[in-house]
Amino acid sequence: MASSAAHPAFPSRSNAFGKLPERPMTTFGTSTNQQRGDFQRAERERERIERESREREEQNQLSEEQKEEIKEAFHLFDLDKDLKIDYHELKVAMKALGFDLPKAEILSILQTHGAPSEPPNPNVPHHPRLLLSFRDFQSVMTQRILARDPREEILRAFELFDEGGKGKINLNDLRRVARELGEGLEEEELAAMIEEFDMDSDGAINREEFLEICMQ
Questions:
Q1: What pTM, to 2 d.p., does this model score?
Q2: Dihedral of the CA atoms 30, 34, 36, 38 (nearest 10)?
Q3: Scanning 14, 51, 166, 172, which has its CA 20 to 30 A from the CA of 130?
Q4: Looking at residue 200, what DSSP letter applies?
């Protein structure tokens, strides 16, 4: 009995089609980390755009005079003119704008909005300070001015008139302020202003009367 012919061996895939290219091994962990990084960058960009939009809306609520006061206060007390202010400069700048804050609150503003100073010389030991940029100062002051009770602003103006802190504005106070502002008002006009708003007829305008005048 004739022996059956041996079946030819099937060619291997590598022999039939050549050696298959090796597929790069991308681990699941690497892909996930990249996606997480992309998401975090997109989220930071979204937050930045929202913050800038909110800041523009808030600043649009300020008068041009208030915007100019913020700018002047910053540049006046930025003593080294580096467009950043430290704790002491921030404290006096805010006080000039009518916000006399305690040390803890000033430090809180710097910790929230400030950034550490850079060493002038990398080879010299450096003790970083927290500094506030003009943009951040503008944002902080805008929020505080908008949140301020309008009565506080009026009473602040009252104190500018009330020389010596006597609690009343008299004819001498009006005369002084008119002179400082370069207003050429006659004595009779100044006396008439006092008389018109002096509700208790004591020859002066007290805080309550001044508030009523300004809140009308």
A1: 0.55
A2: 180
A3: 51
A4: T
